Structures are given as C-alpha cells and as structure tokens.
Amino acid sequence: MAGLACALALAKAGCRSLVCERAPSLQPVGAGLQLSANALSVLDQLGLKAALAERGFSASSVALRDGASDRLLALVPVESGQDGYIAVHRADLQSVLLDAAMADPSVEVRLGLSFQRVESQANGLSVWFLGADGSQTTVETSLLIGADGVHSPVAAFAGCKPPVDSRLVAHRFSIADAPGPEIEAWLAPSSHAVSYPMRKSGERNLVVVEPVGVPHGAPDSRDWNPRLSDFLTRGDYLGAWPLLTVDADDRLRSRERIVLIGDAAHAMFPFAAQGAAMALEDAWVLASCLATKATIQEGLAAYAATRLPRIQRVLKRVSFHRRVYHLGWPLSLARNLAMRVRPEAAMRADLSWLYDWRAEPIAPPL
Ligand SMILES: Cc1cc2nc3c(=O)[nH]c(=O)nc-3n(C[C@H](O)[C@H](O)[C@H](O)COP(=O)(O)OP(=O)(O)OC[C@H]3O[C@@H](n4cnc5c(N)ncnc54)[C@H](O)[C@@H]3O)c2cc1C
C-alpha cells in the first residue's frame, strides 16, 4: 500500500519510480480496513477516492460497546467536515492503487523481486534483488524507499533495530452474510474486538485482539456478549497477526539516500485504525518534500521533520486507546461511566488533529 501510493504520489511530483514487490503475484491478503478522512484526502489527491468509495461503506461514527453486555458506551463521531470515513476490504484498496500504478507511465511495477542489499555509488545507489526464479537483478537509482512492512529488510539493512513483539495478537475473521453499515468495538479486560462491513455482498470483518495464547478469539475465551459470540462462532477464521512495533524515532530519522515509509517506519497497534492511513500520509508527504526541496537530502530531512512529530502523537494516542480499551474491573466501570457521559462533540474534538489533516496538492515538477 505504502509503496504503490508513494509511486503514484511521486508521479505527481514528476518522478519516475520502480516498485519491486517480493510476491510473485498480488493476492488479496488480510481483511478489512477503516480509512479516516486524513487517509481519504491522500486518495482524493491521487484521484482514487471515488473508486474506493464505490467499493467501501461510509460511516459517520464508531460505536464503542461493553464486551460482556453489548451495552452502548459511546458513539464516537468520525467524519471530518465534508470528508467521510470508509470501511473497505484491503484487497479493494490494493487493487485500486495497483490499477492506477499500472496505468501510470511514470510507474513500473515488477513482481517477484525480493530486496537483498544496497550499495552507495558516486551519484546514487545500486540495489540488488533476488528474483522468484533465483536470478539476481540490480537496479541503479537515486533513492531507495523501504515500503516493505513491519519486518522491513531495507530497515534491517540500514541497521535499524528489529521489531518488538507486544505479546498481543489480532485474530481476524470474515463473516459472510452479516450486512449493515455499523462499525462497532467491544471492550473487555486485556482484549477488545472490532467489527465492520467490508464488501457490498454483506461480508463483515471481525478482529479480536487478545494476549498471545488465547485460542482463536474463541466465543467462550472472554465473557463476550451473545451477539459477538455468534459472530465468532460463524466467522471464517483468517489467521492470527502478531502485533509488533518498531522504534519510529530511529526509523524515521533522515538518512542519505534510503528512507522508510509505512509499517517499515512505524508499525503500530491497530487500536486507532491508523496504520494504513499513516502509510498513505507518509507516501504523500515524502513525494511533496522531494518535489519542493532542491536536493534529495533536503527532501528526506524535510520528510523526517514533518512526519516524526505526527507519528509520535499518533503512537501516543494508540497507547492511550490500548490502556482504556483493555481496562479490567473495577476501572472498567469508571471508564464506562465516563464514556457514557462524555458529549459526542468532545470525543470528536479529541481527534480533530488526527482526522482533519489534509494532503495538500503537490507542487508542479521542478
Ligand atoms: C488486525 C489489523 C487491523 C488493521 N486495521 C487497520 C485499519 O482499520 N486502518 C488502518 O489504517 N490500518 C490498519 N491496520 C494497519 C495496516 O494494515 C498497515 O499499517 C498497512 O498494511 C501497512 O502498509 P505497508 O504498505 O506499510 O506495509 P505492508 O502492507 O506490510 O506491505 C509491505 C510490502 O512489502 C513487501 N516486501 C516485504 N519484504 C520485501 C522484500 N525483501 N522485497 C520486496 N518486497 C518486500 C511485502 O510483500 C508487502 O507487499 C491494521 C493492521 C492489523 C494487523
């Protein structure tokens, strides 16, 4: 996602790029994504928002509920001005980005090329890739953008510390024939669950975040309410995603000709549904910085200076959600009461800095 979005944003800045993907073919992976207005503004600038909106579901609020009783605790407004909030299958976002990249003459996508190593040359870099058939490919480039996810081999090559395992795991389920536009989150001690629509066919996404060792987010693994237990019973289990984090301060710092974006730079817990959103923002900001600064080095320094404070703030918010969502009794009682009396406008105001960010048009090519 980060790589394709960045290539498309760079095309707007007048730069050509080559996207090298390790997978020999692009398969629909994962399940659902929620995209807030800040993320949608990047897709809007790329001319892709309408295509995505056609496939996804619009929401105006997220319902927070008590995991045991299903009681509504709060409706958190998530729209931002004219801009909405969309729940979508991540394969649909991937295919919208991929189709646009394939149609853009400034972008080349090559599959089955796995990054191996990089060497500095007088005026740029030589980057080595291993092909799916075992062959080696070398690419000469002026900049290497590591958009290669939480286990980023580019970050490892650049000497970044490895990801840290949180001992939390996200169990993902797809529930057929569960229509309805609601986005809901159920809070429980040390765990929570989130459900939202993914496809017009009625397919619904369910994610249960629990400590490692709890089997498959099983219906009886917590004191879940009957509606959520029913979802768990009839959902198709898609697998467990261990939740890992990385040292964003280290990974976002400016380097000479290597830069990290998306999960490679700042993998985060999905507790504010902002991982992909931040990947899209990174892609746009990086292209803007490269378009407006005189040298690549200045562009990378501007990218690091712009993104670090925002990512730090998002990470702080994510930690806050983790603490609040997973409270045990009796603190959960106080939380539930506080949520029920807090005005919706105040909840929305808490998130303005996050959702009201907008991608500015990229300056014409230098
Ligand atoms: C349970 C869960 C729910 C989530 N929900 C949301 C949500 O609602 N909203 C949201 O915004 N975010 C959400 N996220 C986060 C979001 O999924 C990630 O932040 C996002 O996928 C990161 O995109 P990326 O492009 O940076 O990395 P990835 O999607 O991981 O892509 C990295 C790519 O690099 C490729 N690659 C890896 N190694 C190499 C190599 N050596 N050579 C070449 N290619 C390579 C991989 O094959 C992959 O295609 C969620 C995450 C989880 C776990």
Uncertain regions spanning at least 5 consecutive residues: none
In round numbers, the mean pLDDT is 94
Number of strands: 17
CATH class of the domain at 9-19 and 31-106 and 144-165 and 245-355: Alpha Beta
Number of DSSP helical runs: 13
CATH topology of the domain at 9-19 and 31-106 and 144-165 and 245-355: FAD/NAD(P)-binding domain
- Cα-atom radius of gyration: 21 Å
Large-scale geometry: globular
Find the structural class using helix and strand composition. Answer: alpha+beta
**What does the main sheet amount to?**
7 strands, mixed
The termini sit apart by: 26 Å
CATH superfamily of the domain at 9-19 and 31-106 and 144-165 and 245-355: FAD/NAD(P)-binding domain
CATH architecture of the domain at 9-19 and 31-106 and 144-165 and 245-355: 3-Layer(bba) Sandwich
Order of helices and strands: HEEHHEEEEHEEEEEHEEEEHEHEHHHHHH
Provide the list of bound ligands, each named once.
flavin-adenine dinucleotide
What would you call the quaternary organization? single chain
In the sheet with the most strands, the strands line up as 5-4-13-14-15-12-16
Strand content: 25-35%
- Helix coverage percent: 25-40%
Please provide a written account of the structure:
It is a single chain. The protein is 36% helix and 28% strand. The longest helix has 30 residues. Strand 4 and strand 5 form a beta hairpin. The strands form 5 sheets. The protein has a 7-stranded mixed beta sheet. A 3-stranded antiparallel beta sheet has the order 2-6-3. It has a 3-stranded antiparallel beta sheet with strand order 8-9-10. The protein is globular. The protein has a domain of 220 residues: FAD/NAD(P)-binding domain. The protein is an alpha+beta fold. The structure holds flavin-adenine dinucleotide. Flavin-adenine dinucleotide binds next to helix 1, strand 1, strand 2, strand 8 and strand 12.
